[in-house]
Amino acid sequence: MIRWFTHNLGMKLISLLLAVGLWYYALGEERIEVTRTVPLKITVQNSQMSILKTSALSVQVTFGSPRASLAELASSEIKAVHEIKSDVNRAGDYSFRLEPREIKLNTPQIRVLRIEPEIIQVTLDELIVQKLAVEPNFSGEPAFGYNLIKEKAELNPNAVLVEGPKGQLEKLKTIKTEKIDLVGRIRSFRRTVALELPSNVKILSEALIDIYAPIQMKLDEKNFADIPVRILKDPAGSARVEIKPRTFSAALNGPKAELEKLSADKIVAYIEISTLPPGEYTLPVQVVLPPAVGFKEENSLSVQVLIKKK
Q1: Residues 146, 193: one domain?
Q2: What is the CATH number of the domain that holds 98?
Q3: Where a domain ends, among 126, 144, 175?
Q4: Would you say residue 62 lies in a domain?
Q5: Is residue 4 part of a domain?
Q6: Whole-number Å distance between alpha carbons of 217 and 153
Q7: What domain range includes position 184?
Q8: Antiparallel, parallel or unpaired: β 111-116 and 159-165
């Protein structure tokens, strides 16, 4: 037995090494099928045409890869690119078959086995330029008791030039900015924001928008009854004064927090008689209100006053 093992030992070792090497080679050449989602990019050579819509933004590609290349297949950036030639020059539907050569790979050992969907449908349209108003995209609510005065918001620029498919741009009246967060705001602020461009639309003018967002306390309305009219007179008090009416009612508006602090007896309403001699008068009522609080309607209050000597 030992003699058989040692007979032609060199040849046997060489055969063993060749067998092991062949096994490793075969293992490396074994092809594994791997399916990946690959983004699809479609370009148009004709500068007067644009893509309005497409049936797929990505495709499922099944690759055949040697086991040794699996790591590279998993980590590499793969994309599918199809170019529509310049002889396609009319708006309408267009279809094409995506070919394996249009799947861009960095490793020649990896082969494309299947592409799904194989046929891609594209709608082409005339490329136009249009001016669109900019619309601020406010998100969330300011702090409790505050609100945004949207009609007083300022945008610079307030309109932009965009380029895109005719059928798409003709449906747009405005173009929105990225979201502008209002949550918890109690003061007006300025911000520079970008635009949220729809797919297939390109901006031709200024891409950044300077915006001013005015924030103020919420305005409310409250009715007050029996507000007393006070008399401002000379310190000596040498006259007797009669007032008709002695009280009045009013509707006030202003910040909700300020109105809630007010009551009829805290509103200062008065007439000035310190320089008047005895007689009958129609005098305006002066009213002192907190800042930002005012009458709902124009105020022209007056009272009848009779001043008599004591």
Answers
A1: yes
A2: 2.170.120.30
A3: 126
A4: yes
A5: no
A6: 16
A7: 127-217
A8: unpaired
111 and 135 part of one domain = no
For the segment 257-278, the average pLDDT, to the nearest whole number, is 87
**Residue 272 token pair:** 């000035």
pLDDT: is 292 or 43 the higher one?
43
> Which range among 18-22, 213-217, 288-292 has the greatest average pLDDT?
213-217
pLDDT tens-digit readout, 39-85: 999 988 888 888 888 999 899 999 888 877 777 777 678 889 999 88
Picking from 199, 217, 235, the residue at the C-terminal end of a domain is 217
Give the lowest-confidence range in 25-34, 121-130, 167-176: 25-34
Enumerate residues 6+ apart whose C-beta is below 8 A from 74. 34
Which residue type occupies 151?
Answer: E
Nearest to 202 by CA among 41, 56, 90, 50: 50
Average pLDDT over residues 174-201: 93
- CA dist., res. 228 & res. 288, Å (int): 13
Written as six digits, the tokens of 301 are 């209050």
Give 305's contacts (C-beta < 8 A, 6+ positions apart): 241, 242, 243, 271, 273, 280, 281, 282, 283
Instruction: Tally the domains of the chain.
Output: 3
Say if residues 38 and 91 touch (Cβ distance below 8 Å).
no
